[in-house]
Amino acid sequence: MEPKVINQTLSKAAQSGRWKYGQHSYFCQKQGSGNNWAYGYSVHGPKHEESVMNLVQKEVEKCDSLSGFFIIMSMAGGTGSGLGAFVTQSLQDQYSNSLRMNQIIWPYGTGEVIVQNYNSILTLSHLYRSSDALLVHENDAAHKICAKLMNIKQISFSDINQVLAHQLGSVFQPTYSTEGSFHYRRNPLGDLMESLVPHPEFKMLGVRNIPQMSESSLAYSTFTWTGLLKHLRQMLISNAKMEEGIDWQVQPHFSGHPTLGKMSLNKELHFNTSIANLVILRGKDVHSADLGGFKDPALYTSWLDPVNAFSVWKTQRAFCKYEKSAALVSNSQFLVKPLDMIVGKAWSMFASKAYIHQYTKFGVEEEDFLDSFTLLEQVIASYCNL
């Protein structure tokens, strides 16, 4: 379980002079999970549950008021996915009144691990039962941002992590609690989930940022709130993961017209219908920004009023190197196609019984796979019918 990576993380943090992990605030083992979700969940989980939960308890005891847990994990391998799902379940059991948000790294579509689709469906189905919200980052999208917006030629894990960290920071750095207030928000995790997850069937969240660019490009760029928000809105409705390549032809449907959201998955889901959106603005003249475009009822599902479906957080403090910047956290149909693809690929392998024996020998039976398929197909259907 990644002793080399954890040791690198500890030493890098200590060298930075900005952050230092506690001497006993980590857990690792020499043996991994061999990219097998069942091994991480059924072997490592029960074996190390007490040690891991004792570490968690020590951190919890330092809190004046515990709002929840933010769990960062991957889906493709065995430890992050299997052990991550087990730990989330343990947190649900032991801290049932606290919120749990899982940030999950969606695997590359081309494949990192041959059984990544099995690992992904098992992870997602378990988290759907034990987590309050899933904040999804797609590796393919982060990779494209590095290549096309940041102009990085040889993309490393560090570059991808920088993009993910930027997106998380743009959401969770402090913002003011209410319009005109100078008191900072005390419970961003709870506020985020209250705004964006109105129903337990819909808990998939995605993040988009604008602007994102290299230092050399930034020197020649100027931004207005009108321009940034116009692009961000179009990124939302056309389901673009970044500013480059936005489809400007996609427009909201007017009442009386059939909605593409209710079409089958075989037809392209052009318009990205939302359940709820949160826009976070940071920088100069932030109170002059006009957010009317995000309050349009045509952007949202019919069963939620835009007054309840849209929220905004603001602060005049600039983020990173950008004089003005905006982040959008959205609960929408953005993940329907990637999720359907993963479920489809996993089902094709399952139908031919490929690699199933690797899972059954560690206690994950065929019925567990079938339960996962059923749950996720229901999630896909629910999002499609918005």
UniProtKB/TrEMBL annotation:
Keywords, ordered alphabetically: Cell projection, Cilium biogenesis/degradation, Cytoplasm, Cytoskeleton, GTP-binding, Microtubule, Nucleotide-binding, Nucleus
Role summary: Acts as a positive regulator of hedgehog signaling and regulates ciliary function.
Organism classification: Eukaryota, Metazoa, Chordata, Craniata, Vertebrata
Gene expressing this chain: TUBD1
Residues annotated as domain Tubulin/FtsZ GTPase: 2-180
Localization, UniProt: Cell projection, Cilium; Cytoplasm, Cytoskeleton, Microtubule organizing center, Centrosome, Centriole; Nucleus
PANTHER family (UniProt xref): TUBULIN (PTHR11588)
InterPro entries, alphabetized: Delta_tubulin (IPR002967), Tub_FtsZ_C (IPR008280), Tubulin (IPR000217), Tubulin/FtsZ_GTPase_sf (IPR036525), Tubulin_CS (IPR017975), Tubulin_FtsZ_GTPase (IPR003008)
Protein name: Tubulin delta chain
Family: Belongs to the tubulin family.
Source organism, top-level taxon: Eukaryota
Signal sequence interval, chain numbering: none
Keyword GTP-binding annotated: yes
